[in-house]
Amino acid sequence: MANLFHPSFGSRPERIVGRDDVIAQFLKGLQREPGHRDRATLILGQRGMGKTALLLQLAEEAKSRGFVPARVTAGEDMLEEIIESIQIGGSEFVSEKPSRVRGFSAGALGFSFGLTFSEEVRANYGFRTKLSLLCDKLAENDKGVLLLVDEVQPNTDAMRALASAYQHLAGEGKNVAIVMAGLPGSLSRVLNDKVLTFLNRARKHHLGPLSSGDIMAYYGDALARERRLVSPDLLMRATAATRGFPYLLQLIGYYIVEFTAEGDEVSSDQLDRAIAAARLELVEDVFFPTLNALSARDAEVLRAIAAQKTSPASVADVIASLGIDNGYFQPYRARLIDAGVVEAPRDGALSITVPYLAEYLNGKGEAGKES
Fold first, then answer.
1. Is this prediction's pTM over 0.70?
2. pLDDT at position 339
3. Among 137, 213, 299, 346, which is most buried by a count of CB atoms within 10 Å?
4. Which PANTHER family does the entry mention (predicted)?
């Protein structure tokens, strides 16, 4: 039997834990008339909070309800990727016969066959027109279009073009919906972009740590299906070790299954080994990429935050430990927040968002042993 737990970024676990309200609100939005605010969704969350897995789930849910999903990662080529994804995903619903599209000049072919654009459209029209044509063509077959953008980046021409196209097509009553996901800092700057202010009307969901109840219930069910017996005490320990982090939920569950035989009861030692293995993998998969993306000075500031005795840390104490003034500190604070490494739970305070990263930076515990 294949392991039910899938601890890898960019993959969809067999069940999305603790996000039922988000999924329900999204599906409710798809039932609204085109152009309704509930058809635009923003998902904000720190690294490892399950944004990508949730997007994959939303795409599957929408597909089963008559939408053709186009899921991309934000970047320079995302507009072309969206068009190609819709053409590939929607081709099974459209006849391959040549067809003309209403609204074009007399004799102009919108598509040469299926969802393949004619040479005229391919050479002379931009993203918004091509997306509009695809929406119209799929609507003839009672299909809508769902746009999903992961790792949203602010202040890019592609992002502005996509959001502007969606705003216009929604206003024209096209059967289209959009979901964007990203770090809180990045999405905040997107919402402050003068061209994209209409996105402030979108439904916003902040993905925080999972509740202990949701994690424990899932572990109990999934491990039972894996035919592993777990005592209530060990179930509580496994749950607490995740710190509400969806990625750790998958990692710890994966190693529990790997370290125990089918039909056996999980021992305390086996659970300890599973947690230790998960935390070591966290170093490779999360800590190294996170820290390598920071400048040397940003990393130094992050270490100063981790070194404080309280969490969240006092900004005044961090500044004092670094020997700098507040004006000099603020750019580093802003960059660390944008990177999704820290957050400001209240004025004058900062906390590290990634579980066990503070211990790692301080050289403590399994995930605190630098290699």
1. yes
2. 85
3. 137
4. ATPASE DOMAIN-CONTAINING PROTEIN (PTHR34301:SF8), DNA-BINDING PROTEIN-RELATED (PTHR34301)
Q: How confident is the model at residue 107 (pLDDT cuts 50, 70, 90)?
A: very low
CB 286 within 8 A of CB 250: no
CA pair distance 173, 33, nearest whole angstrom: 8
Q: How far is CA 6 from the centre of its chain?
A: 16
Domain boundaries, the chain: 20-207, 212-290, 294-368
Q: Quick check: helix, strand or coil at residue 173?
A: coil
Cα distance between residue 70 and residue 56, in whole Å: 10
- The Cα 13–Cα 86 span in angstroms is 24
Determine the distance from the C-alpha atom of residue 319 to the mean position of all C-alpha atoms in its chain, rounded to a whole number: 32
Q: Backbone dihedral region of 135: left (phi > 0), alpha (psi from -120 to 50 degrees) or beta?
A: alpha
Domain 294-368 CATH class label: mainly alpha
The Cα angle at residue 39 between residues 38 and 42, in degrees rounded to 5: 80
Per residue in 123-149, pLDDT tens? Answer: 899 999 999 999 999 999 999 999 999
Distance CA 242, CA 365 (A): 15
The CATH fold assigned to 20-207 is Rossmann fold (3.40.50)
* Helices 268-282, 246-259: crossing angle, 10 deg rounding: 130
Q: Do domains 20-207 and 294-368 have the same CATH topology?
A: no
3-state SS, one letter per residue, for 273-303: HHHHHHHHHHHHHHHHHHHHCCCHHHHHHHH
What whole-number distance in Å separates Cα of residue 236 and Cα of residue 230?
A: 10
Strands 67-73 and 203-207: unpaired
Per-residue buried b or exposed e for 84-99, using 16+ beta carbons within 10 Å of the residue's own CB = ebbbebbeebbeeeeb
